[in-house]
Amino acid sequence: MMRQARPASRGMVPVGLGLAVAVAAVAWPLLPLPAYVHHVSVLALLWAALSTSWSLTGQFELVSLGHGAFMGLGAYVPALLLERLGLSPWMGWMAALAASAAVMVLVGYPCFRFRVIGDYFALVTLALSEVTSLAIIAARDVTGGSLGFTLAAVRPSSLAGQLWFMEFESRTGYYVLAWLLLALNWWVWRRIQRSRLRLALTAVGEDEVAAASCGVSVVKSKLAISLLSALLATSAGTLYARYVGYINPATVSGVTLSLQVAFVAILGGMYAWYGPALGAAITVGLAETLRIHLGSRLAGLSEVAYGVVVILLIVFFPRGLAGWLGPAARRQGVAGAGPWATRMLAVRARRREAP
Amino acid sequence: MLRVSALNAGYGSLQVLWDVHLEVGCGELVALVGPNGAGKTTLLRVVMGLLPAWSGRVEFQGTLLSAMSTPAIVERGVTCVPEGRRLFAGLTVEENLRLGAFAPAARRLVEQSLQEVYHLFPVLARRRRQLAGTLSGGEQQMLAIGRALMSRPRLLLLDEPSLGLAPHVVRHMFAIIESLRQGGRSLLLVEQNVRRALEIADRAYVLESGRVVLAGPAAAIRDHPHVVQTYIGRQG
Amino acid sequence: MNLARLLVEATVNGLLLGGSLALLALGLNLIFGVVRIVHLAYGDVLMVAMYLVYWLVAVLRWPWPLAALATVAASSLLSALVFAVLVRPLLRAPALNQLLATGALSVVLQHLALLVWGADYRTLSIRFPVVQVGGLFLPVSRLVAFAGALGVLAVLWLFLHRTYVGMALRAAVQDHEAARLMGIVPQRLYLASFLLAGAVIGVVALFFSLMYPVFPDFGVPFTLYAFVIVVLGGLGNLAGTVVGALILSEVLAVVGVLVGAELSASAALVMFILVLLVRPGGVFGRVAEGR
Hints:
The complex is a heterotrimer. Helices cover 39% and strands 26% of the residues of chain B. Chain B contains eleven helices and ten strands.
């Protein structure tokens, strides 16, 4: 008989961890910490959402470096619609979602259809991120180019108005929205873990041809997960722009940002639901600390230090911190189990055929 | 010369070879036959160091191959004509041959080896400047064998040399393989064309589901009821 | 009328730039083809080599031949160092980790340059004359770079076809495992490809120093351009790489004249996406085998 790896057990640990996270989330804004710490924690939440959305595809060996494009659309489209037409960021967000979905399908469908995989898919999406960045710079009459864009401030007084314009007097409003977005990411993550799509995508990641021969629709599965990931990244872009109030091509698009998102997910561990968020907390904390201690002295020093730390972490923790913390967070099948999903699908297909 | 003992190996968690024992003596032509997926190619990959053994030993002239890298094994005098030929299609015939003599010792004799291979396969001499990918199937197989001979091996492993060739080319190929034994060279021949392989071999092993189920002189194997029934059929 | 002349001039300039771009892409083709790693800091090594040219020639006032030799040697060593320190430990790691590590190296090199040389544009401030050929104004610097690039391309061609190491490099691009069966040691070949690519980068840095000022972000677009060319030309395909480089440099030059520099870069990248979608193995190459 063939050995089959069982899906991760859903024991008490994740439930306990989830509960602890919820309690901490509610208590955190009440703590008398410096305003700066609260500011950084909102940034960390946004990065957590962004990298969790990335790991939706990353965990299936579908390495997309297009988050720079989707976050960029999420940031710029609502900002411009508010500035030009006075549209609520919520409507701008919808428009950005539509734009991201269109771009994803436009690039993703031919990629998946013609089997652009591995390094080549990574390069296509990387180029997409760079094109977005260059397009924002080139359209400088509208976007402000590389000098960046300051979002229009409406300053609504009522809570309803604040909600409508996604512009809050207190930081807590953004904090709550960022948590909601992260929770949405986690919910999607969980739904996928329990879905048929997961098995299909794992099999596709192992061997596309074999998966297709087991009845998996490769193009549809990949497109579905990529769309989910892109739309969640777009949402993070919208909220980020609204919270920070100032965006430029380098902070919401481009090559470096896309690599950064993937790195955060890998560092935390992209095979566990809490991994990317853990990675976000650590990297945002690290980047801010380096910036405060080194950045003020010499321009560039903090980035050099950050880059060196990134390299060291990738060399010495290739599976991320979550993978190092618990076995459930490691990718199933890595430790010698072979292409378990493909085999499982093949067994199922055979069972279906059997009388 | 080559001694494989108690070998277990596989991919991932999937064990392919189970406690395999096999020997090739000096100047011997040994056939390794069996159905598709029995682990014949896997065995060759382990011998060549392309796949690590889980346990067991692979020895060649008293030295342990299992701990060596592929290039080191080639330098020891073991070469493989891989399944599917694996030529460098974008390189010329002569470049393919010269690469066969990459190891330092073989490189010193490269011009001499080249003449020998061209003597053995005159068609390759005529097509020396042609890209390997433009050769016919039979010519490609000759080039693959010629390329392996360039390292002047004492043991040559041949993986399915007759695969995908036209019947009259197959006959020619087996004649060539028989002639390769000259000069005390040992051969391990993996073949699906069981009847022909057993005709030219001295001894044979039958590998099924990763286990050696039969071993002995080729003539005896050829007449064994199990082999006759499963591989050769009535006409044999 | 005026636009027509501008376009002709852009076309010729594109052709002249194409020589250096072909060299640059050839180095990356070796690394991508032999080591199978996406080297995202490739253009940044070029940027460092250009600063070195600037430093040796404009600051230390070394004579040109000496500075040229030193640049090629140093950039070759830097490239080998990248292999030994960063790539070698990651050879068996997932492709994504390799990509992120070289991406991080790109960030490190850029900001190191910022630390050492600042954000200013640095030029050799050598004034080259402009010659007039048949009504076209051509900068001598580009003519020199083009002739030099053609010469080095010829040397490279001979190296790849006439030496054992060159043949082994070409063989490994096509079939790694078969190359090992020939007795070729992969690790040495990896080192050779990084050394060779580094030397090529050094040569390109010399030519580019005649044409462009250098600044910390200089290399970023060139990494992507080099990948575009490699994909256009096909892995391990020397002739395809040269043609791919000419196509890209023409697109950059002509679109640049018509609509502006940023959009020309976007156009190049859009072309890249289209090419990958249609022919992942390169326009002039066979479809590459999967990893």
